[in-house]
Amino acid sequence: MNLDLQILSFSSILASIVSSVFFILVWRLNPNMPGIGLWLLAVIGQPISTALTALRDIIPNWISILVSNSISMWSLLLIYLGARVFFGKQNKNWKIFLLTTCTFIPVFSYFIYIEPNIIARIYIAYTYSFVFICLSGHCAFSLKSDKQTIGSKIYGFICLFIAAVVIVRLLTLGIFDVTVKLYELSISNFFGPFLAYFVPSAITLSVFILCYEKRELDVKKLELTATQEVKLKNNMLTTLSHELRTPLNGIVGLAQLMKPKVNDKSLIDDLNTIIKSGNNLATLSTNILEYAVSESKNIHLKPANINVMSLISELSHLLTPMAKNKDLTLNITAPSDFPESLLIDADKLHSILINLVDNAIKYTDEGTITIHAHYQKQINAQYLITLSVSDTGSGMSEEEQSSLLLPFARAEQVLSKQQGSGVGLALTTKLLQAMDSTLEVSSQLHVGTKMAFSILCDKRAPNPITKQPANALLQALNILLVEDGQLNIDVVTAMLVKNQHSVHCATTGQQAIAMCINTQFDLILLDMQLPDCHGTEVLSEIRSQGWNINTPVIVLTAAVTPKDKAIYNQLPVSSVVEKPIMEDTLALAISASQSQTFNIAESTGTSAKPVIFDCGPFIFLQSNLSKQQLNLEIQKLPEYISTSLSTILELDDEKLIDKHLHKLTSYIGQFGMLQLAKAIQQLDVSSFERKQFILNSINPLVDISITNLMHYFEVHND
Asked: Does residue 255 sit within a domain?
């Protein structure tokens, strides 16, 4: 049966138009995809080429034959160029386009006008098609295995199929005579219309899949990039905080050492201001670190009984010099019966207020800044306190107010003066969110701005405080100071010598380990960031050999991220003192270290931890197990704990993790190693990515716990 070529041609035109419309939709959804514009031109060219061929009885031959075949050849060439761009081989090379055009049109024209030959024209057209479609498929198949996708494979196989059809078309030219009816059916009436329909449809389908996959890959790359940027930002802020606290330790420490040597009250006030300013700067750096991780974790609050009006008064004293420099008046207003003691996080409240007042000073050139405190009594002995900071500054437009709380955003008036980083109010907003509050901003241009917030808190009776020097009952101690910063060595040594302590210094971890093997110390002050190793490695060595297995250790650190604090809290140490080091805090930590209880010493006070070894649970085991059984169980303990921890750290399922943690802590608790049991129980699952760091931090506590257990067993084995 001979099919009508006109019917096939017009049906092919309709099919290719539908495919072209579909491709236009794909292009509209993915206008920025590399190479898609070239593919669009190629797909649109197919129905045009088919239409010109179908109209050969109506339009001149040179249009229906030469132009239609040229457009078909250009379409396949554009498919190849689009593939080069999409698969990243190189940018589109228009030299290929020009070279092909300059060779195809003259040769093809020769076999139309000078020596008409349909077989030669078919050979020429399909040979060009075969070359370009093979090159296009090669772009997909030549991708590295890790970059190959389902879409790229589909695209490559479609190109291979089209190439196979073209090969069959070329082979049939040599087998069948042009006069044979089979040729008319299988060649003239089939291949041209088939390719006119199949090429745009197949290319459209494969490009749709490729664009979908690329979007997914781009999203994953953006997520990975964002994650890496967050890590880089957090690492940068952590390093910045550490480097900031190191010189602050020198400034604050020297100011503390100067106070007893000064008699002038105004100079003493100035030194107190220096000390408070240094501590406020250190607190601010901690808050910025918490802000950096606040998107993935909540900011940790440490509520304590404080006098809010005293805190505001101290803040006013701190910022008054800044206000006076601009001839501004800083006022405080509050009702006379404002509650004296409220349960609230003092550091966070201080950071919020200092940011608001500092912001008001920057925006105000003349007039007054007022800090107002108000309260409303609630049920259940709670109070809703409202604090506001208002100024008579330049004010803000509605547009500026809408972007005010974004990170690094500043009002136009301040931006022009290049004051501030723009992170203060964004940090304030995060801190208030952690305290279940929001910042309310009202401002009028050229009149002033008022910023206010309300916090619900409990009222507590004031704690009677009797100040007594922490070192009053301490005898002189033989102390090893492990610190590599010379300024920190000078400051801490001066603080210790002032209280009659004997100080020995080690500037590297290996030097400290060597000194601990040969010399008995009463106390070790250990910095975590040492030039040759981490402090946890030094601690592990100290606890495993030498004369200082049971010597109290106080950690001195400028690394105060929430993760670092969680890790240090698991160490077998007496306390952790943050830099800049306050003399009273260090004295308190030293005093606590000489008792049997280990504490975490921070600027806000101390909190007790379980003793390392409690003989009570172990005595129960002794009464129920033979000496041989008990000795065997003790010998197996180190390997059992190590294997169990490694297993836990490899798990991803939180339920399985909790199950294994409970099993391990219960087993350890039976031997009286209470601090180790609690430390393992409180392991942060989100920190498991720092596997080696966690193992290094837990191992010293494992070593000292087992050492205490074995010592007790050896003494009481009868």
From this structure: no
In sequence order, which ranges of 62-113 are alpha helices (DSSP H)?
Answer: 68-86, 94-109
CA distance 218 to 212: 10
Q: Which helix (H) or strand (E) holds 526?
A: strand 523-527
Contacts of 539 (CB under 8 A, 6+ apart): 526, 553, 571, 572, 573, 700
Residue whose token pair is 């009028």 = 444
Amino acid at 357: V
pLDDT per residue as tens digits for the range 42-68: 888 877 887 777 776 677 766 777 888
Say what the pTM is.
0.45
Q: Could you give the CA distance from residue 486 to residue 471 in angstroms, rounded to a whole number?
A: 25
C-beta separation of 271 from 259 below 8 A? yes
Residue that finishes a domain, picked among 560, 588, 608? 608
Phi, psi (rounded to 5 degrees) for 530:
-110, 155
Q: From 180, 140, 145, select the one nearest 157 (Cα to Cα).
A: 140
The pair of three-digit structure tokens given for residue 112, joined into one six-digit string: 């139309």
Contact 579, 276 (CB under 8 A): no
Three-state DSSP at 264 gives: coil
The vertex-231 CA angle with 226 and 236, nearest 5°, equals 125
Residues 432 and 324 in one domain: yes
Residues with Cβ within 8 Å of 683's Cβ and at least 6 positions away in sequence, in order, are: 570, 648, 661, 694, 698
Q: Would you say residue 411 has pLDDT above 60?
A: no
Torsion of CA 204, 205, 211, 214, to 10 degrees: -140
DSSP, collapsed to helix, strand or coil, labels residue 449 as: strand
Write out the two tokens for 674. 């209470």
Query: Do 707 and 543 contact (CB within 8 A), yes or no?
Result: yes
From the number of C-beta atoms within 10 Å of its C-beta (0-12, 13-18, 19+), residue 270 rates as middle
> What angle is formed at CA 129 by the lines to CA 125 and CA 132, rounded to 5 degrees?
140
- pLDDT tens for 624-649 read 667 787 888 888 888 888 888 878 77
pLDDT confidence tier of residue 654, bands split at 50, 70 and 90: low
Cα separation, 26 vs 499, whole angstroms: 78
Q: 367: alpha, beta or left, given left = phi > 0 and alpha = psi -120 to 50?
A: left
Which residue intervals of 307-465 are DSSP H helices? 308-325, 346-363, 398-402, 412-415, 424-434
SS (H, E, C) 492-514: HHHHHHHCCCEEEEECCHHHHHH
Find the Cα–Cα–Cα–Cα dihedral 139, 143, 147, 151, rounded to 10°: 40
Residue where one domain finishes, among candidates 459, 490, 508: 459
Strands (E) located in 574-697 = 575-578, 599-602, 605-608
The Cβ of residue 79 has, within 10 Å, a number of other Cβ atoms equal to 32
* 694 burial type by CB count under 10 A (0-12 exposed, 13-18 middle, 19+ buried): buried
Based on the fold, state whether residues 568 and 595 are members of the same structural domain. Answer: yes
For the chain, helix (H) and strand (E) counts, in that order, are: 25, 14
> What is the length of the chain?
718
685 or 117: which carries more pLDDT confidence? Answer: 117
Domain of 603, in residue numbers: 478-608
Contact 710, 634 (CB under 8 A): yes
CA distance 594 to 487: 27
Three-class secondary structure of residue 176 per DSSP:
coil
For 630, the token pair is: 């008990």
Domain co-membership, 604 together with 621: no
Q: Give me the residues paired with residue 452 across strands.
A: 388, 440
Residue 165 lies in a domain: yes
Q: How many domains does the chain have?
A: 4
3-state SS class at 337: coil
- Give me the amino acid identity at 627: K
Containing 411, the helix (H) or strand (E) segment is none
Q: What is the distance between the alpha carbons of residues 156 and 138, in angstroms, rounded to a whole number? A: 7
